[in-house]
């Protein structure tokens, strides 16, 4: 309910805006990719055949609760626009995966597999960005 003045000079720094966006997603009671879907997305990203992997991710995305799906579609559409300007902002789909993967998708209970999970989290976000039209189209 706090009123924000977006004309304030603090919002001119893109890092502040990005940090606020990441903080919003990090502080949700449950990640944008709900906990109960974590292992399913990890298993899907492990699929070797690219077409089957994309189809599996698409099917999982369709099963998400409607608010999660709608938010995800808008967020990934925006991140895809950022990746399209990689030559200017140096943010590739891989970089965006590294930045947003652990924020949007994480297990409910951390295990000793944090490094492995992080790799999959990054790959899932990267795939969803690079195959946005096939997954959300």
UniProtKB/TrEMBL annotation:
Keywords: Cytoplasm, GTPase activation, Membrane. The gene is Arhgap15. It is a peripheral membrane protein. Its main location: cytoplasm. PANTHER family: RHO GTPASE-ACTIVATING PROTEIN 15, RHO/RAC/CDC GTPASE-ACTIVATING PROTEIN. It comes from Illadopsis cleaveri. The lineage of its organism: Eukaryota, Metazoa, Chordata, Craniata, Vertebrata. GO terms for cellular component: cytoplasm; membrane. PROSITE patterns: RHOGAP. Gene3D superfamilies: Rho GTPase activation protein (1.10.555.10). GO terms for biological process: signal transduction. The keyword Secreted does not apply. GO terms for molecular function: GTPase activator activity. This is RHG15 protein. Residues 1-136 form the Rho-GAP domain.
